[in-house]
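batch job 7 of whatever, protein = Enoyl-CoA hydratase/carnithine racemase
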Amino acid sequence: METLRTEIQQGIGWIFFHRPEVRNAVNFRMMEELAEVLGGMREDDSVKALVLAGDEQTFVSGGDLEEFHRLKTADEVFPVHHRMGNLLEELRTFGKPTVAAVQGIAVGGGCEIAAACDFRIASDQARFGFIQSGLGITTGWGGGSRLLEQLPRNRALYLLLSGERVDARRLYEWGWITEVVPFAEFLPSVRRFVQSFTQRSLGVIQAYMELADATREGEPRDQLVRREARTCARLWETEEHVQAVEDFLNRPRPSRPSPFPGPDR
């Protein structure tokens, strides 16, 4: 990989954007590599969750202007934006929890990538900016519509229209950032957060992701209830559930003191 660094540790797939010379800007090569890695980690049962991260300075700074601005017309640039938008839709429907881990700056397309993830963990020094409006364009990778789903209309529109760079604490208060953690303890904090659910079975994780997607897509309530009953029934007969119940029933029970006083001594 030229533009990404990847690893799998303890059920977590890590993707690090790695073009530090251009602040991790997305170019055509990165799009190809990201598509390849997402496909591989989606199918890898050892991966229970996915984390996307940059470096201490920058998460992603958007599209690579030097490459993308060789495209001069709408007909030339539309397929590129549409392809990246579809790639981020694959991320949004990855089937396993996804986390955008932003330690430094995320602007433009970097914010669109973050918006495609289930969780956004930021350091206390991170800043975010949908800066496209200041460049005379809109979001092009689906980030605007996702943001409008995730925040109240007035707050999402403010971020999109103003292009203001906003600190992580403010976006945490708005509910868009999941957690704000200390800059110096960033990656260990992200790892602890993700491990809180990667300890669960892949079947349970995928079932809840499917339920979340169905709920977001507006599946009727009666079908959601039926879905949950069927999923629980399917997992009921798995070895993991049977063993967990046996362990629970056979757990040591603390002895209780007798309610009656003993004889005087």
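notes: The chain has a mean pLDDT of 94.
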